[in-house]
Amino acid sequence: MEIPPFQRIAVVGAGLIGGSVLLAGSRRHLAASFACWSRSTASQRLLTELGIGEVFTRVEDCVRGADLVVIATPVDKMAETFATIGPALSPGALVTDAGSVKAAVLEAARGLPASVTFIGAHPMAGSEKAGAAHASEHLYAGRACFITPSGKEPRAAVERITAFWQGLGCVTTECTAARHDEIVAAISHVPHAAASALMLAVADQPGFSPAAAGSGLRDATRIAAGEENLWLGILLANASHVSEGLRAVEARLAELRTALERGDAPEVNRLLAAARIARQSLDRPA
Amino acid sequence: MEIPPFQRIAVVGAGLIGGSVLLAGSRRHLAASFACWSRSTASQRLLTELGIGEVFTRVEDCVRGADLVVIATPVDKMAETFATIGPALSPGALVTDAGSVKAAVLEAARGLPASVTFIGAHPMAGSEKAGAAHASEHLYAGRACFITPSGKEPRAAVERITAFWQGLGCVTTECTAARHDEIVAAISHVPHAAASALMLAVADQPGFSPAAAGSGLRDATRIAAGEENLWLGILLANASHVSEGLRAVEARLAELRTALERGDAPEVNRLLAAARIARQSLDRPA
């Protein structure tokens, strides 16, 4: 049997994302032992039943002695989490996270002791379902994962963190935290906010009839079913990029609407065709 | 063997929707014989290979002798189709359609001879894939279908048309054409236009990165891959309802965006939570 790359991996915030790190990390033998903590007592109970690692009720106890700490708490809790675990971290430990924004988390990570190395990451995996009950060892298989070093870390540390996320099944890409935030605004945060706005508007229409709704409306609004507590933090932490993107959606809606209002068939056709072509680019292999 | 409810069903515009009428109608023995016409030579060839009914290259020939004619051409072609087939229709024939708007089609149906009875319908089934090649005998199974009589037709005719769509597997609902158009604006046309606007806006963002896009963006914009030629006609024929709905989407986007811009966490949270609750209502059994 191969020697695992880490002695002990601690997962802080073992819900859907963190729980899947535990399941995939254990199955792929990425550490000799695992530790985890979850704020939710339901997840704590479930994690104990799973028996993958030691389950702690105090987050400081969870990280003690770990050479890799994976933070999977909501992004608006990161600063608080870093402050709490800081004194308990082993000198030389690597710390990574799975947060959906990276500039704000990098900023928060300044609160960590100088004796540890933080390298942010963002695996593009998830679900509108939250909690360890929905965790899966396959969650990361083939998924894109951003690695966002600041450029000041030892290169060997960046490589170990990259290998860790690859070890879970991810396909990694390295970029700055700022570039990451710009990308995820376009492909994730703006679509999420737009799906929420669409759902609110549709639900207000006099013709809204859930029983008649087909897969079109369901698919277009599926992500709006996500937990608001999670998304609130994400959208606020990436507000300037998201705001810029939402302005663009508003402008495109107004463009299409005014073309419809004046019965401008060639213009409506041009906009719908451009949207179809752009949408088809998402299905083309990169 | 039961006597089929119709002698001969003619399907005008045998693509995805019309082709599925043929497949399901034949499998469920709804007529003693079938006739069909498609503008597309690829669909004509395919329909000939299927061998379900006589395939005609002239639409007038297709409808001759049929006691039920099903029009499945794009909605902006309906007036033209009615004018062309009118003289060839058998007196007493029933005519129905599968168009996504109903008031405009009812208006167009005034061009039919007084000796036939038109009763509009809209089965809520489809796909972003067009053409007879994607037709399926299961397309209508369990799907909602609006039946939109004007109120002036013989009740027996309404009942025969209702039984026909039920015979294909649909679950029917009767309402006026105007009410239908209000409903589908909310649950289908506004989401379609909004998905197109979102796709256009996202594709313009500096962070747009198709390779990193996950299922969230893909699902939210899936319907934007639909054929613009089909949707152009639908959106223009239902422009006033769609315009009203798009204004509401723009207003909700601006509400969410300005809350984000001023960092108003309780307000962002309130909007996201309301959207989540509305979205969850779509998954609740009616």
Structural notes for this entry:
The structure is a homodimer of 286-residue chains. In chain A, helix 5 (103-108) links the parallel strand 5 and strand 6. In chain A, helix 7 (177-204) crosses helix 10. Chain A contains 11 helices and 9 strands. A 6-stranded parallel sheet of chain A has the order 3-2-1-4-5-6. In chain A, strands 7-8-9 form a 3-stranded mixed sheet, covered by helices on one side. With 286 residues, chain A is of the alpha/beta class. Chain A folds into 2 domains: 6-175, Rossmann fold (3-Layer(aba) Sandwich), CATH 3.40.50.720; 179-283, 6-phosphogluconate dehydrogenase C-terminal like domain (6-phosphogluconate dehydrogenase C-terminal fold), CATH 1.10.3660. Chain A has helices at residues 16-27, 41-50, 59-63, 78-85, 103-108, 155-167, 177-204, 215-221, 228-237, 239-261, 265-283; strands spanning 6-12, 31-37, 54-56, 68-71, 94-97, 117-118, 120-123, 144-148, 171-174. Chains A and B meet through helix 7, helix 8, helix 9, helix 10 and helix 11 of A and helix 7, helix 8, helix 9, helix 10 and helix 11 of B.
